[in-house]
Amino acid sequence: MNSAIIAVFLALASQAILATYHTTCYDYFLKKDGCVFSSPATSQRCPAPTKDHTDPVHRFNYGPPKAKPNDGHSLQRRYDDNNPSFSVAGGKGACDNYNSATDLGVCLWSGAEQKAPTAESAGWLNGVAKSNCGKTVYVQRKGDPSTVKYVKVLDENVIGYLLLGCSFNTTLTNPGCFEIALTTKVIHIFLRPVATA
């Protein structure tokens, strides 16, 4: 009898240990949209947009080409930020140290709890929940899909690679989960040259 109770307890405890904890922003978008882009779980992943190919494989092409949307790009914007982006200064981030002048990186919302963060209170990441550190995001100038750049999450405040987390002076998932800050290097990539007369 005691061994059966211990076995049941261990089975329940192992499930709790193996349970996946998602960030606050992951849970927010899962509830809001019913799916999350780039989710590791296929049951929670948003469907990828269909990709059109410019040229058919001629060996198997039987008939005229089908009409295709003429959008000029294959990526689709997933989330727009609500406020203008800003640059981060550099230093110690949630993921690692970074140099804003030389690292391509982004800073994403670190969550509502800023004084004593926990893994459960992380927005996209924080100093405790670092599973998004080093992941790659794509960034584009608003309204101009031809400017897409891929960057790593560095921590709370850097674009490129996710490098760090930023508070963005909000404790609310909307707008927090939509906000992004960039390293100076990323901002310089998006600057358009000024024509001189």
Report what the structure shows.
- It comes from Puccinia graminis f. sp. tritici.
- This is Secreted protein.
- Keywords: Signal.
- The protein is globular, with a radius of gyration of 21 Å.
- The chain contains four helices and nine strands; from the N terminus they run ααββββββββαβα.
- The protein is an alpha/beta fold.
- It has a five-stranded mixed beta sheet with strand order 1-9-4-8-7. It has a two-stranded antiparallel sheet with strand order 2-3.
- Helix content is 19%, strand content 20%.
- The N terminus is likely disordered.
- The longest helix has 17 residues.
- Strand 5 and strand 6 form a beta hairpin.
- It has one domain.
Task: Annotate the secondary structure layout.
Layout lengths: L1 H17 L5 H10 L53 E2 L2 E2 L4 E2 L6 E5 L26 E6 L2 E9 L1 E3 L4 E6 L6 H4 L3 E4 H7 L7
Parallel strand pairs: 1-9, 4-8, 7-8
Antiparallel strand pairs: 2-3, 4-9, 5-6
Keywords: Signal
Protein name: Secreted protein
Radius of gyration over alpha carbons?
21 Å
Structural domain count: 1
How can the largest sheet be summarized?
A: 5 strands, mixed
**Mean of all residue-level pLDDT scores:** 72
> Uncertain runs with pLDDT below 50, 5 residues or more?
1-18, 56-77, 155-160
Structural class: alpha/beta
Q: Which shape, going by the Cα principal axes? A: globular
What share of the residues does DSSP label as strand, in percent?
15-25%
Number of separate strands: 9
| Proportion of helical residues | 10-25%
Distance between the termini: 89 Å
